[in-house]
Amino acid sequence: MKQLLYITATPKSPEHSVGLQVGGAFLKAYREAHPDDYVRVFDVNQEAFQTVDGDVVRAWEKLRKEHLEFSELSPAEQRKVNALNDMTEMAMRADKYVFVSPMWNWGIPPRLKAFIDAFVIVGKTFHYTERGPVGLLRDKKALHIQTSGGIYSTGPAAAMDHSHPYLRQVLGIVGIEDVQALYVEGHDFQPERSKEIVRAAKEQAVKLAAAW
């Protein structure tokens, strides 16, 4: 049995989110095609999860630089490090990842960045060598369903896309090199084609789900 971690990063409802509509089409088709797989849906805007905050950073410094034992950390530091470890391990258990996110100011939403920081952890999902970082999450794959009102996958505005290129790069650092992109874009730039754009994206999502 494979595990799929399906991560969404928009505060909008499915009725008002193009990304969630396309992602929902993928998820429905995936469950039909892979009925035995375990699917974990994680909405970064609805789920409470531990982020890398001041207590966590101080705890890491005590453990790595001061060589303290875990039991010597403060109760708050112990609790937060454990909670962050739980997040990291949840992500590590997955075999496949789907990220559904809008482009915000040419980047990813801040809650999605916080989620990524919770599992891109040196010593757990990657480690450093003389030749650079080496990922530990091998033989896994990811799909990024990215929405944007304008067109950024190609053309003159492509250089402004700091969303999918970042996600592809950071996943590569932890060893996930099979990263696909499904761009749902241009529905605001070309409103007369918005229904056609969404319909085509849903069809592509269904095909990808069956192949996954």
Topology readout:
Elements: E1 3-8, H1 18-33, E2 38-43, H2 54-64, H3 75-93, E3 96-102, H4 110-117, E4 126-129, E5 132-135, E6 141-148, H5 164-173, E7 178-185, H6 194-211
Parallel strand pairs: 1-2, 1-3, 3-6, 6-7
Antiparallel strand pairs: 4-5
Helix pairs in contact: 1-6, 2-3
What does this protein structure show overall?
The chain is of the alpha/beta class. The protein has a single domain, classed as 3-Layer(aba) Sandwich (Rossmann fold), CATH 3.40.50. The strands form 2 sheets. The chain has a 5-stranded parallel sheet, with helices on both faces. A two-stranded antiparallel sheet has the order 4-5. The longest helix has 19 residues. The model has no long low-confidence stretch (mean pLDDT 95). InterPro entries: Flavodoxin_fold, Flavoprotein-like_sf, FMN-dep_NADH:Q_OxRdtase_AzoR1, NADH:quinone_OxRdtase_FMN_depd. Also exhibits azoreductase activity. Catalyzes the reductive cleavage of the azo bond in aromatic azo compounds to the corresponding amines. Its EC number is 1.6.5.-, 1.7.1.17. GO terms for molecular function: electron transfer activity; FMN binding; oxidoreductase activity, acting on NAD(P)H as acceptor; oxidoreductase activity, acting on NAD(P)H, quinone or similar compound as acceptor.
